Amino acid sequence: MLSLLLGTLAGVILGTLSGLIPGLHTNTFAAVISAASVPLAMVFGAEGICCLLVSCMIVHTFLDAVPSTFIGVPDADTVLSVLPAHRLYLSGKGEEAVRLSALGSLWGFVYAMPLFAAFYFVLPMFQNEIDWAIGLVILTAAGLLIVFSKTPFWALLMFLASGLLGVFSMRFSYFSFGVFGAGEVLLPLLTGLFGIPVLLHALRAEPAYAEQSFSGLFVSRKDTVWNTIKGTFAGAIVGWLPGFSSGTANALLAFHRSGDYESNPRGYLLSTSAANTANAVLGLAALYAVGRMRSGALAAVAEFPLPNIFMLLAAAGASAAAAYMLTVLFAKTGKYIAKVNQKMLSASVLIFLIILTAVFCGPFGMMILILSTAVGWIPGKLGFPRLYCMGAVMLPVMLFSFGLLQL
After folding, report:
1. Which of 20, 126, 165, 344 counts the highest number of beta carbons within 10 A?
2. Is there a domain that residue 213 lies in?
């Protein structure tokens, strides 16, 4: 029991670090833990390591809202929520944005519990149909996303351009090889599309950060319930596909006239945060039911004899509670970050992300970073939302679901 508690605590610490440091992901820690599994097993035991990995994965889905909001740099799960969150920060509501994300993640975890049983017992019987249906759902969402755009031509062009770049990146991901072995292409791909253009703009523009204040969450209980339930189901839709970020689920949430993305940023933050956490939780069901590994963390868990599922769910629940409190605590740091020299901060993060890509993804990752930055720069120059760059994830998912792309 002591090793399980220690493993959970270590997972909370690592998940906090990966969530707060831009560019780091739980997959990075999972690779290191997998490589050092023998000495770590002597300390935590196999079951303790599994608790560590699951806890790290859950905590990350809460804490990654902090750099997404205050710096504007996303990871694979926050590529769309960063847009309204950073906008709220620029208007002085950064703490509210982070607290909303934390609340959405917490309810996403709660609502995912009933779905867990369906994933575990029922969905394996309809596996082939589900894979095909997910492709149709994403195709429909992408079509509506473009049709309801204010600039359908540019929306379609950006969706296809980013989508082709995503297909190329994922199809040849085996070329991504850094100092520590194989790297994942989502780091340079999504950082270039959504993160670096924001940082480059911050380097060129005059500081526009408002004084930060917090006077409560401006969202009704009804909206909270509806948006978190909607986000949980969106996370569940893509929760059965291996190898893809829950950013796909967030794109689904944005399809209706750009969704709550512009008209209701607070509701959209609740939805996307719920989708991220629910997706992580339901990935456990996919692992236990059909052996599908939704992420690097779950792939590392699969290397060990799978422990009792209820034990891992207990570790996940404790981690979610701790992560919620930590996220609320770090939400208060926005007023201090706003006082830092923004150009220096942006330059530091930009250099760090370039170094991180070079170290973990090698020359191929650097090439993807350059190409994705060029594509991600276009929406800002032409004045339409960067939302349509989610084609980088949605198009490969569709092709994979229809059996037209092997990853």
Report:
1. 165
2. no
C-alpha 305/C-alpha 50 separation (Å) is: 9
Q: What radius of gyration, in Å, describes the C-alpha atoms of the chain? A: 20
pLDDT at 228 over 50: yes
CA-to-CA distance for 336 and 189, rounded, in angstroms?
30
Q: Which residue shows structure tokens 């991180």?
A: 356
Q: Looking at this protein, which amino acid is placed at residue 256? A: H
Residue type, 349: V
Q: What 8-state DSSP symbol labels residue 194? A: I
Indicate whether 215 belongs to any domain.
Answer: no
255 — phi, psi (to 5°)? -80, -25
CA angle 193, 196, 201 (to 5 degrees): 115
Q: Does 211 reside within a domain?
A: no
SS3 177: strand
Which residue reads 């994403």 in tokens?
138
Tokens 């339409």, located at residue: 384
Mention every residue, 6+ apart, whose C-beta is less than 8 A from residue 157: none
d(CA 224, CA 227): 5
CA dist 164 and 315 (Å) reads 39
Q: By the 8 A CB rule, do 30 and 180 touch?
A: no
Domain containing 134: what range? 2-206+220-401
Strand 177-178 with 181-182, pairing: antiparallel
> Are the C-beta atoms of residues 13 and 51 closer than 8 Å to each other?
no
Bigger pLDDT: 60 or 186?
A: 60
Residue type present at position 365: G
**Residue 380: how many CB atoms within 10 A of its CB?**
14
Nearest by Cα to 286 from 51, 401, 119, 110: 119
pTM for the predicted model, two decimal places: 0.76
pLDDT digits (tens, 9 = 90+) for 349-373: 888 888 888 887 889 989 999 999 9
Structure tokens at 281: 């939780």
How many domains is the chain built from?
A: 1
Mean pLDDT, the chain, whole residue set: 80
Tally of CA atoms within 13 A in the half-sphere of 114 that contains its CB: 7
The pLDDT tens digits of the residues spanning 80-128 come to: 555 677 778 878 888 899 999 999 999 999 999 998 888 888 877 877 7
What are the residues whose beta carbons fall under 8 Å from the beta carbon of 100, sequence distance 6 or more?
217, 219, 266, 269, 270, 273
In a domain, 407, yes or no: no
